[in-house]
Automatic annotation (TrEMBL):
Domain of life where this protein originates: Bacteria
Enzyme category, top tier: lyase
CDD domains linked: DRE_TIM_HMGL
Reactions this protein catalyses: (3S)-3-hydroxy-3-methylglutaryl-CoA = acetoacetate + acetyl-CoA
Protein's UniProt name: hydroxymethylglutaryl-CoA lyase
Pathway recorded for this protein: Metabolic intermediate metabolism; (S)-3-hydroxy-3-methylglutaryl-CoA degradation; acetoacetate from (S)-3-hydroxy-3-methylglutaryl-CoA: step 1/1
Upper taxonomic lineage: Bacteria, Pseudomonadati, Pseudomonadota, Betaproteobacteria, Burkholderiales
One MF annotation (Gene Ontology) recorded for this entry: hydroxymethylglutaryl-CoA lyase activity
C-alpha cells in the first residue's frame, strides 16, 4: 500500500531560483515564500548561506529570512555548507539547517570544494550547534543516482553517506537526483539501500526532471514507502534559456499526482498554481509545470 499522507518540501525559492539566470530581488522572493507558506507547505526551503561568489542568486538570503512574515507551523530551511553559513542561518532564525554533501567524490569537489570525508568533518560542528540551538538538521546527498563527472554511483556509496549523515544526527536525509537521470527501478533500489541505514519515513526524494522521469520516480519511491518529496513551484530552475540548467520536478504536477492517488499533502493546489503564475511572470516566461499550465488555462 502507498503512504496515505506525504510531506512536500517546497524548494523553489532555493533550488529553483538558484538555477535561474534571471536574478530576482528580495521583494519578489519574499512574496513567493509567503505565498507558498499560505498554500500550506509545512516546509519551505527559503535560503542558502553559501559563498555569494559561487551562487550570486542566493546573496539576498539574509534579507529574505529577516523580512518574511512567518506562518506558524511552517519550517523555513536554509542550506549551510559550514559554520559561517550556520551562524548566518541562526541569526536569520531559520528553523532548519541543511548540510549538503554528495555520494560522488567528483561532485563533492565541484560543488563544495572538498572531499566527502572533509565535508562530513565540516558538518560536525554545524550539527552540534544545530542541536544546541534546537534547530532541525537535514542532510542532503547529491548525485545519489548518477554523477555528471564520474558517471555511475554505487548503492554502497549512497548507503555510506546516509550512514555518516545519520551519525551526525540528521532528522531527515534527502536522496537527490541532481542531474535527473534516475529511472523507476533504480529509484527503488537506491531508496531501499538508503533505508538500510536510516528510517524510510525520514528519507526524502529530491528529483530533478532533466530526463522527464521525476513523476515516475516519485511513484516508484511511494511504492517502497518514501513519504517526503521535494519539488519546485512552476518547475523553477529549468529555464530553457539558461544552458545546462535543470529544474526540480514541478510542485503542481506532484500535487496533482497525489490528489489523484488520494494521498494527503495539506497543500492547496490552486494557491500553488497562482504562486507559479506569479513567479513565472516575474521571470518573464511561462511556467514549466504541465499541471500548472493546464489548470491555469481552465
Ligand atoms: P571555499 O572557497 O572552499 O571556502 O568554498 P573557504 O572556506 O575557503 O572560503 C572562501 C570564501 O568564501 C571566503 O571569502 C569565505 O568567507 C567565503 P573571501 O575571503 O574569499 O572573500 N565563504 C562564505 N561566504 C558566505 N557564506 C558561507 C561561506 N563560506 C565561505 N557559508 C564553499 C567552500 C562551500 C563555501 C563554497 O564552495 C560554496 O559556497 N559552495 C556553494 C555550493 C552551492 O551552493 N551549491 C548549490 C546548492 S547544493 C544543490 O543545489 C544540490 C541540492 O539541490 C541537492 C541536489 O539536487 O543534488 C541540495
Ligand atoms: Mg537540487
Amino acid at each position: 500500500p502507498l503512504p496515505t499522507k506525504v510531506k512536500i518540501v517546497e524548494v523553489g525559492p532555493r533550488d529553483g531560483l538558484q538555477n535561474e539566470k534571471e536574478a530576482l530581488g528580495a521583494d519578489v522572493k519574499i512574496e513567493l515564500v509567503e505565498r507558498l507558506a499560505r498554500a500550506g507547505f509545512v516546509n519551505v526551503e527559503a535560503a542558502a548561506f553559501v559563498s555569494p561568489k559561487w551562487v550570486p542568486q542566493m546573496a539576498t538570503s539574509a534579507e529574505v529570512l529577516a523580512r518574511i512574515e512567518r506562518r506558524p507551523g511552517t519550517i523555513y530551511s536554509a542550506l549551510v555548507p559550514n559554520m559561517q553559513g550556520f551562524e548566518a542561518a541562526l541569526a536569520g532564525k531559520a528553523d532548519e539547517v541543511v548540510v549538503f554533501g554528495a555520494a560522488s567524490e567528483a561532485f563533492s569537489q565541484k560543488n563544495i570544494n572538498c572531499s566527502i570525508a572533509e565535508s562530513i568533518a565540516r558538518f560536525e560542528p554545524v550539527a552540534r550547534a544545530a542541536k544546541e540551538h534546537g534547530l532541525r538538521l537535514r542532510g542532503s546527498i547529491s548525485t545519489a543516482f548518477g554523477c555528471p563527472y564520474q558517471g555511475a554511483v554505487s548503492l554502497d556509496a549512497v548507503g555510506d553517506v546516509v550512514a555518516r549523515m545519520r551519525d551526525l544526527g540528521c532528522d531527515e536525509i534527502d536522496i537527490a537526483d541532481t542531474i535527473g537521470v534516475a529511472t523507476a527501478r533504480q529509484t527503488q533500489a537506491v531508496m531501499l539501500r538508503a533505508a538500510q541505514e536510516f528510517p524510510m519515513g525520514q528519507l526524502a526524494g529530491h528529483f530533478h526532471d532533466t530526463y522527464g522521469q521525476a513523476l515516475a520516480n516519485i511513484y516508484a519511491a511511494l511504492e517502497v514507502g518514501v513519504a517526503i518529496f521535494h519539488s519546485s513551484v512552476a518547475g523553477l530552475g529549468g529555464c530553457p534559456y539558461a544552458k545546462g540548467a535543470t529544474g526540480n520536478v514541478a510542485t503542481e504536477d506532484v500535487l496533482y499526482l497525489m490528489q489523484g492517488l488520494g494521498i494527503e499533502t495539506g497543500v492547496d493546489l490552486d494557491q500553488v498554481v497562482d504562486a507559479g503564475l506569479f513567479i513565472s511572470a516575474q521571470l518573464g516566461r511561462k511556467s514549466i509545470s504541465r499541471a500548472g499550465n493546464a489548470l491555469a488555462a481552465k
